[in-house]
Design goal:
The protein is an alpha+beta fold and 491 residues long. The protein has 11 helices and 15 strands. It has 3 domains: 166 residues, no CATH class; 110 residues, Helix Hairpins, CATH 1.10.287; 150 residues, 2-Layer Sandwich (Heat Shock Protein 90), CATH 3.30.565.10.
Length: 491
């Protein structure tokens, strides 16, 4: 029972540990997949936006090269029709002025950089200017940030994607894609400059992976799989344990049956030897009486002599049978045995019997081991028989009243084990004959179990006693000599 509970606790611990490790690995795999997808999308966004701003530089360079040959013509105004992101095109002729002072500053910077320069960045309205200083005219393009994005090639659905995408510049930001950012979980970030020096914007992408996005179905499936494997493993352990227990009980049962057969044969030999002895004595008496009869009765004397001879032969046969089935001397096989371990082994073997009868045994023992001199198999047989007798007695009382306890003590040079039950108990007549061969109170009993136990105990220089237990029940006590401690220097 204790080992079964230990197996269950070990199984639960292993299930929790393996399930946790597997779930962590699945979560890490999912997070790595999410990060890879996020970074792939972010790099695509950066590439698309970089292509657009580089295109703006190319448009500006084309305007500088295609200065109008005819004064007053304005071919640049057709750019808005070709490029939706260009809201307006302004041109400053030589000697004229810009309507916005910021464009003049940007033109001066563009002349120094020999390329387009940024001006009037207003992310609140999603606007900015790109200015190019050239001769005889300079140009300024007003750009629409929203239209700059090539939405047809965008790698994500802007309305539903969880990724937040912004364009940042000097503390200002323009949200291209709102995404979903919450609290807790794991945060992914991406930041990179666009590929055009004239438009030094930063592309920022953010992704918040919450707990709800973990692969819970896979994790639950993994936990269920681990549970199924461990249940199978525990079932296999229980099956192996039950098989070992059955083999041990079979071995013990075979020894018990052999000893019982020996006890039965010895009892039969004892019972038969008495009438045969009486027959022999009576026949010899008849022979002596016939000697007093006249000699004309030789036939009678011969017949009686043959009867005497046959009686002697029958007695010899019975004596040989008794010697053949007598138990070997246990005293020559004694060895130190831990009494507590022997009791625990018997309780373990009988665990199914306790469970079937709804009995929870209690064990009261000293903290130190009690080592006795005994023959291990004989000791196991005694403990097994006493426990089985207690269980059979408990079958006669209601479930709630069934109690069985085993105690182990060391007193006065003896190791003592007592089996106490709350069964119906024994009357004075039963108590007086309890160890008598062939005496039993059970219909199917042979009356040899307790007699055999007493004989085995005596063969190990021990003693087996029976008594009543108050307020109801019986107690059987086995006493065996304690093993002497090993001499110094010997194991």
């Amino acid at each position: 029972m204790l080992k079964a509970q230990q197996h269950r606790w070990v199984g639960l611990l292993l299930w929790g540990l393996i399930s946790a490790l597997g779930c962590v690995m699945l979560a890490r795999i999912e997070l790595a997949r999410q990060r890879e997808a996020f970074e792939t999308d972010a790099r695509i966004v950066h590439r698309l936006l970089s292509q657009r701003v580089v295109q703006h530089d190319a448009v500006m360079a084309t305007l500088a090269l295609l200065q109008p040959a005819t004064p007053g013509s304005q071919p640049e105004q057709r750019l808005s029709a070709l490029y939706p992101q260009i809201l307006s095109v302004q041109r400053r002729e030589s000697g004229a002025s810009w309507p916005d002072a910021r464009l003049l500053v940007a033109e001066t910077l563009s002349r120094a950089l020999r390329g387009p320069a940024l001006a009037g960045v207003d992310f609140a309205r999603g606007r900015y200017y790109l200015v190019l200083a050239a001769e005889p005219a300079s140009y300024a393009l007003q750009m629409d940030l929203r239209a700059v994005v090539p939405w047809s090639e965008w790698p994500m659905a802007p309305e539903t994607s969880a990724v937040r995408v912004l364009i940042e510049h000097e503390g200002q930001d323009w949200v291209l894609q709102p995404g979903r950012l919450g609290q807790g979980g794991w945060r992914f970030d991406f930041r990179k400059h666009l590929a055009a020096e004239s438009q030094p914007f930063d592309v920022v992408a953010q992704r918040q992976v919450g707990w709800v996005e973990l692969p819970w179905s896979w994790m639950l499936g993994w936990a269920a799989l681990v549970a199924a494997v461990l249940v199978g493993w525990l079932a296999l352990l229980r099956q192996r344990t039950a098989r070992r227990r059955a083999e041990e009980l079979l071995r013990l049962g075979q020894v018990t049956r052999l000893n019982a057969m020996g006890e039965l044969a010895a009892g039969m030999a004892h019972e038969l030897n008495q009438p045969l002895t009486a027959l022999l004595a009576n026949t010899q008496a008849c022979t002596r009486l016939l000697d007093e009869v006249p000699s004309d009765m030789p036939t009678i004397r011969s017949a009686m002599a043959q009867a005497v001879e046959q009686a002697r032969r029958a007695s010899a046969v019975v004596s040989r049978l008794r010697r053949a089935v007598e138990r070997p001397d246990l005293a020559a096989q004694l060895q130190p045995v831990d009494l507590m371990q022997a009791v625990q082994s018997a309780l373990y073997l009988l665990e199914p019997e306790f469970r079937r009868r709804n009995v929870l045994p209690t064990l009261d023992a000293l903290p130190d081991s009690v080592t006795v001199m005994a023959e291990p198999v004989a000791l196991e047989q005694i403990i097994h028989n006493l426990l089985m007798n207690a269980l059979q007695a408990l079958e006669q009382v209601p479930f709630k009243e069934r109690q069985l306890s085993v105690s182990v003590r060391a007193t006065g040079g003896l190791g003592e084990m007592a089996v106490t039950d709350s069964g119906p108990g024994m009357t004075d007549e039963v108590l007086a004959r309890i160890f008598e061969p062939f005496f039993t109170t059970r219909e199917a009993g042979l009356g040899l179990g307790l007699s055999l136990c007493e004989t085995l105990a005596a063969g190990m220089h021990g003693n087996l006693k029976a008594g009543r237990h108050a307020p109801r029940g019986a107690v059987f006590s086995l006493s065996l000599p304690l093993a002497l401690p090993a001499p110094p220097g010997k194991p």
